[in-house]
Specification:
single chain; 220 residues; two-stranded antiparallel ribbon; 8 helices; 8 strands; elongated
Length: 220
């Protein structure tokens, strides 16, 4: 492999991991004393939320209302800017285990079953394979490159026997190399945006997918 190519690929890997590590915000599904503190402050400002330490939809709506009142992007996520505006101090580092993020990715991936395949599609109105994977992972705060071949350079490889839910699985379909990608669900099944069925579940051991499977990567 030429030196320039190796440098480029290494840069892509580092960029992927930097994005993963730097994605930090309190969001729906989070629990703990930090969340309770956020809720308590929202409640003291008159928002209808209980300080129970569980970041649910009601907390997200209260956060959105607060963000709108402060001229911030009303996305319902408590990132550094929202945290500082709300609590007047720097946001603590958020530590999440890979299992938490994997559960979030797998759960969110199922929300789009039946969405049609659209070449170049990146939204729930229509996805292509890598656009779908990128969208689902972005919802969990993990930002991946746009194409399947670039996503194949992220994280680190895992063998078939070591696959875990949330891993990326890759296939060589219409072109040589990683030209198709999906999200592993467990028990040999993965979810993907296929050109024939849209967002659907399939087995990596089926006659078709098994014949073009080339490997998996773990990015969490």
């Amino acid at each position: 492999m030429r030196k320039a190519t190796r440098v480029f690929l290494l840069s892509m890997v580092l960029m992927c991991w930097f994005a993963v590590c730097s994605a930090s915000a309190f969001r729906v599904g989070d629990e703990g004393s930090d969340v309770a503190e956020i809720q308590g402050q929202l409640a003291s400002l008159g928002y209808d939320v209980a300080a129970d330490g569980a970041f649910g939809p009601a907390t997200a709506e209260a956060v959105k209302a607060f963000q709108a009142s402060q001229g911030l992007e009303a996305d319902g996520l408590v990132g550094p800017s929202t945290y500082a505006a709300l609590l007047g101090k720097s946001m603590p580092e958020i530590s999440r285990g890979s299992n938490y993020i994997a559960r979030r990715v797998v759960s969110d991936s199922m929300n789009y079953l039946g969405v049609p395949y659209v070449f170049g599609g990146t939204t729930p109105s229509g996805f292509d394979c890598s656009g779908y994977v990128r969208y689902v992972f972005a919802n969990a705060g993990i930002y991946l490159p746009r194409t399947a071949d670039a996503q194949y350079e992220c994280g680190y490889p895992v063998s078939t026997s070591e696959l875990q839910a949330g891993d990326l699985v890759f296939f060589s379909t219409y072109d040589v190399g990683p030209s198709h990608v999906g999200i592993y669900l467990g028990d040999g099944e993965f979810i993907n945006a296929s050109s024939s069925q849209g967002v659907s579940i399939a087995s990596i051991y089926s006659s078709y997918w098994g014949s073009c499977y080339i490997g998996a990567r773990r990015v969490m």
